[in-house]
């Protein structure tokens, strides 16, 4: 009899973490690998945030806190939703976990039963289907094509809803495509959701602040008729370059927020007291660096998209946010190149050109690959040269 549980056998380790690890190993072995696999900003955590953490340590803020977050942090989150999204929540409608991923994990564990379905538009963030599987429920993947900018349409949503649908997961700006839903597009989906009151919505807004050209960010909890069925997840990882601090949060109905705290009380207890103090400063302190960093990301996006589109065989949609692009390599999968799949493409790219990217099939849409451009312009220039040379050689 296997020591490993049946539920664990249903899932796979995160492919994006695997690529990052592989690139790290090759670098350690002396290879000049450029890693474009990691989903984290290359910027450092701002000094005012670091100082708040140091102060927390020095003033003895080093004990257990309330399970689902300190009152100070919950108040800062309430203020954030009011200030940035025009949404009113009380502190009882807020929960804090050890990263956004942890909050989503808790949410799914707290609400899903066997037989429940969760609609996940593809390409998706790699963890959604596996978390749903781990909770014993069924991910229902809806392919969203390049022609629709990788976004879910009202028609596709309607077709996938059954009596068993418990959640729809929306992620804008998106990992892996960078696509963002406009207010109108969210309102179109809302029409379907209003007709289906048994469907709850998880809105993953973690890339809210990585957005370009004054794109007007809109989140589905802003649709008044739906707010009571929406859990909005966000965090400090991407907006404040705090991936290692592990703080994520969510706002939603009290019943769900309480259930999440129950799970957390029997697993991690509270998130780190020091990271919570730092997150208070992140949310309440100056926000001045956000547009500066977004501008730097936008310059990189412009460079990467134009460089990729100049390569014979590669096509790349120009996205409105996040720090990812999701180019197609379909035109390079043929007899001449001897490449059969996106996985072949990324493996050969790593082996022969020393550039690490992630295959689209890991995100539920084969024929593509994901580039994270959260790295220096110098690295990006080198990487684009290598990708171009590789594609010319095989084509
Ligand atoms: C779409 C999406 N949601 C959630 C997360 C989780 O972020 P964290 O757990 O670092 O807060 C990530 C991280 O890569 C992400 O890309």
The biggest beta sheet is recorded as: 7 strands, mixed
Overall 3D geometry? globular
Show unreliable segments: none
Instruction: Please state roughly what percent of the residues sit in beta strands, choosing from under 5%, 5-15%, 15-25%, 25-35%, 35-45% or over 45%.
Output: 5-15%
Oligomer: single chain
Distance between the termini: 50 Å
Based on helices, strands and strand pairing, what is the structural class?
A: alpha/beta
Give the names of the bound compounds.
Answer: pyridoxal-5'-phosphate
**Reading side by side through the largest sheet, how are the strands ordered?**
2-8-7-6-5-3-4
Mean pLDDT: 95
Strand count: 12
Secondary structure: helix percent = 40-55%
Please tell me how large the radius of gyration is. Answer: 21 Å
Total of helices: 13
What order do the SSEs take from the amino end to the carboxyl end, as H and E?
HHEHHEHEHEHEHEEEHHHEHEEEH
Q: What's the helix and strand layout?
A:
Elements (H helix, E strand, L loop, with lengths): L5 H4 L5 H14 L5 E2 L11 H12 L12 H15 L8 E4 L2 H12 L5 E6 L4 H8 L3 E6 L10 H7 L4 E7 L11 H12 L5 E5 L25 E6 L12 E4 L2 H12 L7 H12 L4 H21 L14 E2 L16 H12 L1 E2 L1 E2 L9 E4 L4 H18 L1
Parallel strand pairs: 1-10, 3-4, 3-5, 5-6, 6-7
Antiparallel strand pairs: 2-8, 7-8, 9-12, 11-12
This protein binds pyridoxal-5'-phosphate.
